Amino acid sequence: MPSISPFAGKPVDPDRLVNIDALLDAYYILKPDPAIAAQRVAFGTSGHRGSSLSTSFNEEHILAISQAIVDYRRNAGINGPLFIGIDTHALSRPALKSALEVFAAAGLEVRIDAKDGYTPTPVISHAILTYNRDRSTELADGVVITPSHNPPEDGGFKYNPPHGGPADTDITKVVETAANEYIRKKMEGVNRISFEDALKAPTTRRYDYITPYVDDLGAVVDMEIIRQSGISIGIDPLGGAAVDYWQPIIDKYGINATIVSKEVDPTFRFMTADWDGQIRMDCSSPYAMARLVSMKDRFDIAFANDTDADRHGIVSGKFGLMNPNHYLATAIEYLFNNRDAWNPAAGVGKTVVSSSMIDRVAKEIGRRLVEVPVGFKWFVDGLYNGTLGFGGEESAGASFLRRDGTVWSTDKDGIILGLLAAEITARTGKTPGAAYEAMTQRLGTPYYARIDAPANPEQKALLKALSPEQIGMTDLAGEPIESTLTNAPGNGAAIGGLKVSAKDGWFAARPSGTENVYKIYAESFKSAAHLKAIQTEAQDAISALFARAAEKVAAD
Question: Which residues, in sequence order, are bridge partners of residue 348?
């Protein structure tokens, strides 16, 4: 188990804050070496991420990625506007400048924020879908420059194609390969103009992102019932991209809400440290959320978003900060019982590592469960065509349909998940925490945890390519194994690891994409002791697998 830092949940010493000047200097000065894997462009589940200080997110990366997107759009026939937004990380604005220099040189119609402000990930998705509604040609797409909740020294760059959601690997692999080739060729073929000329270009247009999104919120959340109830709401943007969205929401809909902090600072000095002592704007972490949790008695319901507002953290009165799995189950139960216009066949989307409480809720409400690999991209098609009413990840990212059953966002939207908590409280008279407590009395109490264990690159590759037969387990913590999966049952896609399930518990193991560890997700519906037994047996089985592989290599 990871040890909790003594700094966790406490304000960060000023001496430990990132040096913003050094971070920005490194963005322009350091040049990536394509011979070093850690310095190449690499698109994970949420785009390319890194830090200028480690030469993994620098000017050449962004210029190359932007040119690769220009090439991809041309080859794919995408010729509508490109919506682009940034979050409040220090590297986001220089990356925007670099991207605009390339996009303008290529003659792309780019829409940037009207007031040079910040734009949440779900707002970009909403803008793309709104523009493309009823269109079949000249479709829009978008870019979000954000590393999500990651530390202040990080940067991130995501591409969302015309469906509005995260790009799938068939797109990101093309972009990644092309970008790395541009870097290898020392930027030959990358066309750019000056930032000043890019801003003046007729194809670079100012766009009001706030008003269309705010005005449309009543189509996805019952804002009127929130207003009528008068419940008190606390909102913490955690210094992120939603900071300028909440006051317009409060003003338009007349809800009784307080923004507890509007501070924006690229060092994020106002945050309390996460479990490992690092600054991380993780709204699902009780350590990072210590400020808002301390205010739980001031509000009927409170919530926060991470830096690009695609994640949510729900503080539910006396219940404190809700576990993300608990809130997902609660949101699903409420939505499918209170959205009469939704398609009766619309299913419930979850990742294979999310709580089985969701399975039990789906069965109770009579809805089809669609279990997919980790990554929100797997929910895009279902949310787009309305065959999924809800898609959610255990890491506190989710989205759901409009009240009329049509698509709202095909990317995670932490803003509507926070407002949904207020709607639940207003309509039912119970907070989501109380609703979840009642749910456990009917469906059982789950014990869920994730741990990390060491694994070298060879072991990670072995785990990713595992077959069900290789694990060699017949029972799990005293129960017969009912299934061993390496492909998700909801769509048949590879998990990139495996999931082993018994009647009252399961575990899933997946290699990390960035660290020399693998992750074990596990859950028990019996007890904390039973959960511990599952975790131990899981780690023992995988260690034995690694040992057998090492013996085979030695024998060969």
Answer: 369, 390
Q: Is 120 in contact with 411 (CB distance < 8 Å)? A: no
Alpha-carbon span 460 to 458, nearest angstrom? 5
Q: For strand 257-259 and strand 233-236, is the pairing parallel, antiparallel, or unpaired?
A: parallel
- The residues facing 156 across adjacent strands are 49
What are 46-83's pLDDT values in tens digits? 799 999 999 999 999 999 999 999 999 999 999 999 99
Instruction: Check pLDDT > 70 for residue 509.
Output: yes
For the residues of 387-456, what is the DSSP string, one character each?
A: SEEEEEETTTEEEE--TTSS-S-SS--HHHHHHHHHHHHHHHSS-HHHHHHHHHHHH---EEEEEEEE--
| C-beta separation of 431 from 231 below 8 A | no
Average pLDDT, integer, range 149-167: 97
Tell me the whole-structure pTM to 2 decimals: 0.96
Q: Which value, in Å, is the radius of gyration of the alpha carbons in the chain?
A: 23
Cβ 361 vs Cβ 439: under 8 Å: yes
| Bridge-based pairing state of the strands 154-160 and 141-145 | antiparallel
Catalytically annotated residues: 148
Contact criterion met (CB below 8 Å) for 402 and 124 = no
